[in-house]
Amino acid sequence: MEVSYIGVDAGGTLTKIAYSSTDSDTIHYHYIPSKDTKLILPFLQSFSKQSVITFTGGRAQLLMDELKIDNREHYIIEFDATINGVHFLLQERELAEEPLIVTNIGTGTSIHFTDHKRHKRLGGTGVGGGLLTGMSAFLLPNERFDEVLRRSSTGKREMIDLLVKDIYNSPSTPINPNLTASNFGKIGISTASIPTSNDILAGIIGMIGEVVSTLSVQYAEACSVEKIVYIGSTLENNPMLRETIESYTTLKNKNSIFIDNHGFAGAIGAFLRSKKQ
Predict the structure, then answer these.
(1) Which of 78, 226, 236, 246 is the catalytic position?
(2) What number of other Cβ atoms are within 10 A of residue 39's Cβ?
(3) For residue 3, what is the enclosing H or E element?
(4) Which fold does the domain 3-95+264-276 belong to in CATH?
(5) Nearest partner of 161 among 128, 209, 126, judged by Cα
(6) Whose CA is closest to 206, among 167, 254, 175, 160?
(7) Taking the CA of residue 223 as centre, how many other CA atoms within 13 Å lie in the half-sphere pointing to its CB?
(8) CA distance 182 to 264
(9) In whole numbers, what is the pLDDT of the chain averaged over residues?
(10) Is the dihedral of CA 235, 240, 245, 250 positive or negative?
């Protein structure tokens, strides 16, 4: 297929690629683990030499060097690419443009404000997909990541997390008794049963969801914003993480938005830059 425009988001964990052909406006999506450079390079080199390509992401320079591309016109700042991609995806869903918090859960988590006319990075945290993949590799070094997610879905967070009701041990509590008082706080306190690796995985995902949504809600309140768009490859095929984020965001009277192909927002932003060249 003759390809005219390509956007590459070279992240710390995954390299996401968005591209279109000359005979169609349809955007195609593909991803490859970033550590597999020997797979990424041949895939990109398989496109027509006439194609226009733009890179973004932390590993963009590495790929540009490997492909001997040194023109800065072929690069877009990651934050700009991501926000542009988010707006494109929102327009596809015909969602109204309005002030938003955009939380990108990649290897780490980055949180932004945007009102379509401008955007600003507000902050972030090292708690994100890298924590999940790192701890998964430590606990289950021989398991594929999709199997890790499957196993986490059977885990029980109440086996390891200390809840408000565990502390008060009373029907009357000053706040919701089912809220987490301390992530992993029950380990070492309760000897009633031993948590499984699946329980620990569930606890890790729960902690990521709670930290990310708590920060996002705080920034939303500071910016007087009601809607938070959550994106990032860490959410893919991860219903527990999405449910945790959605539940806490709703609890704090904010609206969470999840959009299709959100993990490719950066690649889409790079793709859109290619189309402008």
Answers:
(1) 78
(2) 12
(3) strand 3-10
(4) Nucleotidyltransferase; domain 5 (3.30.420)
(5) 209
(6) 160
(7) 26
(8) 33
(9) 91
(10) positive
Fold of 109-258: Nucleotidyltransferase; domain 5 (3.30.420)
Give, in degrees to the nearest 5, the angle at Cα 71 between 20 and 12: 65
> Considering only CA atoms, which of 57, 98, 92 is closest in space to residue 78?
57
State the amino acid at position 262 in one-letter form.
H
Quote the CA–CA distance of 67 and 17 in Å, as a whole number: 15
- Asked if 78 is an active-site residue, the reply is yes
Asked if 153 and 146 count as a contact pair (C-beta separation under 8 A), the reply is no
Asked whether the predicted pLDDT for residue 77 surpasses 70, the reply is: yes
In the chain, CATH 3.30.420.40 covers: 3-95+264-276, 109-258
Other beta carbons within 10 angstroms of residue 81's beta carbon come to 28
Amino acid identity of 36?
D
Q: Using an 8 Å Cβ cutoff, are 63 and 10 in contact?
A: yes
% of the chain surpassing 70 pLDDT: 99
What's the pTM?
Answer: 0.89
236-270 pLDDT tens trace: 999 999 999 999 999 999 999 999 999 999 999 99
